[in-house]
What we know:
It comes from Chlorobium limicola. The chain has helices spanning 23-36, 50-59, 86-93, 107-114, 118-134, 146-152, 154-167, 183-196, 212-222, 243-253, 267-278, 299-307, 334-343, 353-368, 376-386, 435-447, 499-517, 525-530; strands spanning 4-7, 40-44, 68-74, 98-104, 138-144, 171-176, 201-205, 226-229, 295-296, 325-326, 395-404, 412-421, 424-432, 458-466, 477-484, 489-496. It is α/β, with parallel strands linked by helices. The termini are far apart. The structure holds acetyl coenzyme *A and pyruvic acid.
Amino acid sequence: MAIELYDTTLRDGTQGEHINLSVQDKLLITEKLDEFGMDFIEGGWPSSNPKDEEFFLKARKLTLDRSKLCSFGSTARLLQNIENDPNLQGLLHSETPVITIFGKTWIAHTSKGLGISEEENAELIYRSVSFLHSHGREVFFDAEHFFDGFKDNPLFALRMLKAAAEGGASRLVLCDTNGGSLPHEIDAIVRRVLAETGIPVGIHSHNDGDLAVANSLAAVIAGATHIHGTINGIGERCGNANLISIIANIMLKMDRNFTFVEHLSQLTSLSKFVYEILNMPPDGKAPFVGRSAFAHKGGIHVSAVMKDSSLYEHIDPKLVGNRQRVLVSELAGQSNIRYKAQELGIELPEKGELLKNLVNHIKELEHKGYQFDGAEASFELILHRELGNFNPYFEVRESKVTIESRKGSKNVDQAVLKVAVGNEIEHIAADGDGPVNALDKALRKALIRFYPQIKTIKLVDYKVRVLEEKRGTSAKVRVLIETGNGRDTWGTVGVSTNIIEASLQALCDSMNYHLFILKASIPSGEELLQD
Length: 531
Ligand SMILES: CC(=O)SCCNC(=O)CCNC(=O)[C@H](O)C(C)(C)COP(=O)(O)OP(=O)(O)OC[C@H]1O[C@@H](n2cnc3c(N)ncnc32)[C@H](O)[C@@H]1OP(=O)(O)O
Ligand SMILES: CC(=O)C(=O)O
């Protein structure tokens, strides 16, 4: 039997700290989730805020091919006022085919939170569900705090579920609202509920014990056929169950199917899409879809995956739209270097001194603070230099940067460089907006006569990282520069205790790389005279 996917990114997901989605964001995510193949998309709580009301109004114009839109809310506030309850009315006005309402199934919440008796709570649930159902809507019942409630008083918890079922609920969704349950508890309780009710059971887990995904899978193993969660696990406190991991585990490891999702190659892009809309950096360590999920650093690992990827990878990354990566660091062996070289289309000898020297050279540089993840152009130059394919196109013989700041007048930052190209020496000064800009301008001014090709490139990104924080202002810094030519970008690195020196190294690598890729030739004396 296919398992139903119920996405609550737009409702419970937005209850997470720092998460905020506009109406337009919610509409975009809804379309993406439909395209991916969710069965149900919970859009929000219509009567709780104007944004969600507007969302449901605008969502009526969306054409969803697969997903059914759901609105969410609580049971009525007062037993005496079911028909006119503003929350239930708001749910009906949202005009969604499915309505999900949550009710109390832990006795402490009924007595302390709502201040009503067991009898009254059962009636509140029954009458709220049947009211919505009588208006032709499919109603799902979220049994809030079900697992804690069941552990405390199983008869009470089961009675509330039965009230929802009698009212016409077509799914009983068991919520681990406080997120503290363990998989074996979920397993036993789901089995008991299935034995006592004849209605499909769902699971809604929170991640407070870091077990939301495991608990969702335990529920499925016990017989649940409907799973709630959010993309990337965003949500209240520590988040909701991460649907990305749940979907991948169920399809690839448990050999179970969903209604619409046929293959998982869109999983990584779905995760990135939601991060992008949330304006949040993607979690590199996220299982299945993170940038590091299949990144190998240890030399032993790389040596093995080059023979057979499955030796250190639990699945083929392509299945989820991700890719294998190999990192170069002080933990690298010859295999890492060979892998990276292959990736860059560079042929290295199988074994031998050259490879050993390269590994040692890289390890020394890493020890000094260099890092080549994000600075692959610098790494490529090292390989080509070692192989004898590359000689720097120029050499900065001297550099001086001055920063002049006077109260009441504009700062003047100036760089003076002595640059050698072949036998020629250029002595150049340039002003800039800040010392790095002055340096960049001076370098270009010095080189442009010899290499007009550098006109087309520009700095895209500039990052500084302090390497030995404890040393305060005398610490080493690593500068990572990204340069682009409008079509491609490339990263270079520099390290020094002097931020200007580190920036100059990264800038020089960047220009050298551009010239190297263009196969520019170092001008001869005659060519220079013709100029
Ligand atoms: C487990 C979950 O994630 S449930 C979803 C939680 N999400 C949210 O709360 C986000 C949206 N919520 C809101 O915008 C607001 O809380 C509203 C509009 C729903 C209510 O706002 P207010 O009327 O100001 O009430 P407030 O938020 O202070 O308290 C919630 C009220 O709901 C009542 N309530 C809680 N659960 C239920 C329930 N299942 N059925 C009926 N009433 C309930 C509480 O007893 C409390 O009532 P009281 O004020 O009479 O004590
Ligand atoms: C309903 C819900 O979001 C919860 O119980 O966690």
